[in-house]
Amino acid sequence: MLTIHLTILSLTVLVILFTDFNGFLWAIGKKEKLSKKLFTNLHKLVSLGLFGMILTGSIMAYGYGSEILLRNYVFSTKMLLVVLLVCNAFLIGKHMHLSFENKFSELTNKEKMSLLISGGASTIFWISIFILGKMLF
């Protein structure tokens, strides 16, 4: 199950890197707007990958002994970050349309900050979850 979990993680990270690179190009003005169809599908792929990792992670936790893991602060912290990551994914989904309809330079400061904070938080969550996962095994 760990192999499946890590394969899903690897594929999801590749999609995220592609998406974030294009978002960066949009933010610095190298891309005028992002493709609604492409980025909506990419967001769905990342969501599917996240769901797959939650599912495989739950199966592994159950097999390991969820009572033991729930007392483990590393596991509990990782699960909290997964919940925050899922919430942030909904926020990203809500704000994605801005990149389909506008140049980054046309956004209000509030819209820019919302996108940058959400993107930064996502990166921090993914990296932290990976590190905590490594600490568990």
Helix content: over 70%
Percent strand equals under 5%
Order of helices and strands: HHHHHH
The rough form would be described as: elongated
Average pLDDT: 92
Structural class: mainly alpha
Number of H- or I-type helical stretches: 6
How many angstroms does the end-to-end distance come to? 13 Å
- Cα Rg: 17 Å
Unreliable stretches: none
How many strands appear in the DSSP assignment?
0
Note the main sheet. none
Note the main attributes of this structure.
single chain; 137 residues; mainly alpha; 6 helices; 0% strand
Write a structural description.
With 137 residues, the chain is mostly helical. 85% of the residues lie in helices and 0% in strands. The protein is built from six helices and no strands. The protein has helices at 2-27, 36-64, 66-70, 73-95, 97-101, 109-136. Helix 4 runs antiparallel to helix 6. The protein is elongated, with a radius of gyration of 17 Å. It starts with a helix and ends with a helix. The model has no long low-confidence stretch (mean pLDDT 92).
Provide a compact summary of the structure.
The protein is mainly α and 137 residues long. The chain has helices at residues 2-27, 36-64, 66-70, 73-95, 97-101, 109-136.
